[in-house]
Specification:
Elements (H helix, E strand, L loop, with lengths): L16 E2 L7 E4 L3 H17 L15 E6 L11 H4 L3 H11 L3 E7 L5 E9 L2 H4 L3 H13 L13 E4 L2 E4 L1 H10 L7 E2 L3 H9 L5
Parallel strand pairs: 2-3, 3-5
Antiparallel strand pairs: 1-8, 4-5, 6-7
Helix pairs in contact: 1-5
């Protein structure tokens, strides 16, 4: 439990866990066909790891995992209808500009607290531009499969490099698998949930 609970304990001390409650339907904007294939492949791999599902369309939103690439944050204000999906978009863009951020994620939830949609924004600054596309794709896929804590990966990233190839750290892969156990709730704000989750995580020898 000592290793699992911090992954879902936010900086303000609240325990907040959520997984997807519906099939994931991804769409990626602002990349070429090769990068698009890498992103969809990475998402499919992580969804398969979780024993979750993907679909061709979401009955409510069409696509429910939207990934946007841009060179400058202000470009987001020019995306048609994005302001209808992301309230206070102009305020968010100003906030991201001031923070000199290069990525940001927004989650939406259903009535039970499960994830119903996610929006991922990536500004391709010098750092992100230097990251191989397959590594960036896998990193974003794992960071959207669950509602991780805002500090979950501050100390240790979710990926490790093995022979110049990015892979999920075994501990993180185990948590993703365990989190989608149908016996567990799709969302929880009770720290005791971490104990149930930890019990399903394969011990790392």
């Amino acid at each position: 439990m000592s290793e699992v609970e911090p992954l879902f304990t936010r900086a303000d001390g609240r325990y907040v866990f959520a997984r997807w409650g519906r099939p994931i339907v991804p769409v990626v904007f602002g990349v070429d066909d090769a990068s698009l294939a890498l992103f969809k492949g990475a998402i499919e791999a992580v969804v398969t790891l979780a024993h979750h599902r993907m679909a061709e369309t979401d009955p409510e939103l069409g696509a429910n995992l939207m990934i946007f690439f841009c060179s400058e944050w202000v470009e987001l204000t020019e995306v048609p209808h994005l302001d209808q999906l992301v309230p206070d978009l102009a305020t968010l863009v100003t906030k991201l500009q001031k923070a000199d951020a290069n990525q940001y994620r927004i989650f939406r939830f259903d009535d039970l607290g499960a994830i119903r949609a996610a929006f991922v924004f990536l500004r391709m600054d010098d750092h992100l531009s230097s990251v191989p596309a397959d590594t960036l794709a896998l990193s974003q896929a794992v960071q959207t499969i669950l509602l991780w804590s805002d500090t979950a990966f501050d100390a240790v990233p979710p990926l490790a490099m093995i022979e110049d190839k990015a892979v999920l750290r075994p501990q993180i892969a185990d948590v993703v698998r365990a989190a989608y156990d149908p016996v567990l709730p799709a969302a929880s704000q009770d720290p005791s949930h971490a104990l149930r989750l930890s019990a399903r995580v394969t011990p790392v020898s």
